[in-house]
Design a protein that fits this description.
With about 190 residues, this protein is of the alpha+beta class. It is built from 3 helices and 7 strands. The strands form 2 sheets. Strands 4-5-6-7 form a 4-stranded antiparallel β-sheet, with no helix packed on it. The protein has a 3-stranded antiparallel β-sheet with strand order 1-2-3, with no helix packed on it.
Length: about 190
Amino acid sequence: MKTGADSKNKTRIAIVLCVIAFLTVAWALMQDSGPKPEPAPVTAASPDKAKNSSISESLDPRLRLDLLASSEKVKYEGKGTNIFRARTEPVDIPKPVRSPLVVNHNDPSKPGYVPPPPPPITLKYFGLSNSKGEKPQAFLSQGDDVWIAREGDVVNRHYKIVRILPNAVEVEDLLNNNHQSIPRVQG
């Protein structure tokens, strides 16, 4: 076995490759740092030459003072919000004229306050099961949810079934203290 000799040869080859790589990188960096020729000045020419010159201009890293000066002369004249200002100018909004007969719904401390009506109960009553010896059951729905409830049951943790009749069901909204009779719908 020549394990010692093989590893020495591999080490020598690795060192030679590292030296070659280092020299290649150094040579490439020296080539990039040399003086660069200045591009030819742009003159009005044929459209093909203008196209090629615009490409060479876009690759030119020098600062173009003529383009900078022309962009500084542009003045913002938008009709909307000025995005360069921190605050906008106040706008006068006319207040509507209220007659003294308008009922006050907003402030309970002022006279004429009437509390807003409670939201309607959105349950639908679509069926009844009336078996002998059992309390009647109502079939209720709200959106895609369906419940079967007896008198005294709470549906959807929100509505209490007070009374079940063949053509209607009386429901109490426990959150808003609202009683409502919901008629039976067909179909």
